[in-house]
Amino acid sequence: MNKVIITVVGKDTVGIIAGVCTYLANNKINILDISQTIVSGYFNMMMITDMEKSTVNFTKVSEDLDSLGDSIGVKIKAQKEEIFESMHRL
Length: 90
Fold this sequence. Notes:
By secondary structure, the protein is an alpha+beta fold. It has helices spanning 16-26, 58-72, 81-87; strands at residues 3-11, 30-39, 42-50, 74-80. It is built from 3 helices and 4 strands, in the order βαββαβα. The protein starts with a strand and ends with a helix.
């Protein structure tokens, strides 16, 4: 498995989830787990995904999601699971 953590943060607008999920589906990236909330008009989503069958590499996904975020007014970050875990160890 090739897990990637994707976070999305920004002002809530229509289509955020649809845009991100459409991109992932089009590139054969499987969503393993997802959590999202809206607090005082701000959208926050965290996804654990599997890129094992992806048609593009991690660098391309990260760049594409960054651009997608810019176009829909949110910040989208993708991190490989091992980097995410090492950053959050005590």
